[in-house]
Specification:
The chain is α/β, with parallel strands linked by helices. The protein contains eight helices and seven strands. It is globular.
C-alpha cells in the first residue's frame, strides 16, 4: 500500500519504521488497516491521541486528505511533536493536520461542544484510555469509530476501558488480533 504514496513519503515512513520501538509507533499492518478504514468510511473529522514522531499521523493524514477532511492530533512531549510536524510537512499532510501539545485529557476536556469526530485513534497512556473514552464519546458521531491500540499488549492497563466500551449500550466493540491488539468500537 505504501507504493501509492509519493517517493518522499515512502522514504520517511520506512525511516520511521526503523525507530518503531523507540517511539512506540504502531505496526505497518495496523497503519495500513487504519488508513483503509478511514478512507472507506469517508471519515473527515479525525482525532488522534498520541502523535509521537508522526508515523501514524502520516497515514491518518493521507487518508483524511483524500477524503477532504482534517486530522487533529495531540502529543504530550513537545520534542516528539516537533519531529512529527517536520515529518507531516515533508510528507505533504501538514495542511490537513492541527497539532496540539500537552495533556490529552486537558485538551479533550476543553473541546468545543460542536467539535464532531468521525473517527478517533488512541495510542497514548494506556491507563487513561477509560478517561479518553468518556471525553471522546461526547463528540463521536453516531456510526463513528474509536480505535485503540495496544489493548492486548497492555491488557491489564486497558481492561477498564475494554470493560466499559463492551458494556456500553451505545457501542459495538471488537478486539482485532493485529500486532499489539486493536480495539474497534463503533458508536450506534
Amino acid at each position: 500500500m505504501i507504493e501509492k504514496f509519493d517517493e518522499q513519503t515512502q522514504k520517511v515512513l520506512l525511516e520511521l519504521e526503523k525507530t518503531q520501538k523507540q517511539f512506540w509507533n504502531i505496526s505497518r499492518v495496523t497503519a495500513e488497516f487504519l488508513y483503509t478504514l478511514i478512507r472507506d468510511k469517508k471519515a473527515k473529522n479525525v482525532l488522534e491521541i498520541g502523535t509521537s514522531n508522526g508515523y501514524s499521523g502520516i497515514w491518518l493524514g493521507k487518508a483524511v486528505k483524500e477524503n477532504g477532511g482534517h486530522l487533529t492530533t495531540i502529543e504530550f512531549y513537545d520534542k516528539r511533536l516537533d519531529v512529527a510536524k517536520e515529518n507531516f510537512k515533508t510528507c505533504g499532510v501538514d495542511d490537513v493536520i492541527t497539532t496540539l501539545q500537552g495533556s490529552a485529557l486537558m485538551h479533550l476536556e476543553y473541546l468545543p461542544d460542536d467539535f464532531e469526530i468521525d473517527f478517533a485513534f488512541v495510542d497514548a497512556n494506556k491507563s487513561e484510555y477509560i478517561k479518553y473514552f468518556e471525553f471522546i464519546d461526547k463528540h463521536l458521531k453516531s456510526g463513528g469509530i474509536m480505535a485503540c491500540d495496544n489493548v492486548l499488549s497492555h491488557e491489564a492497563k486497558c481492561k477498564p476501558f475494554i470493560d466499559a466500551i463492551n458494556a456500553h449500550p451505545n457501542y459495538e466493540n471488537v478486539v482485532l488480533p493485529l500486532p499489539a491488539g486493536l480495539s474497534l468500537g463503533r458508536k450506534l
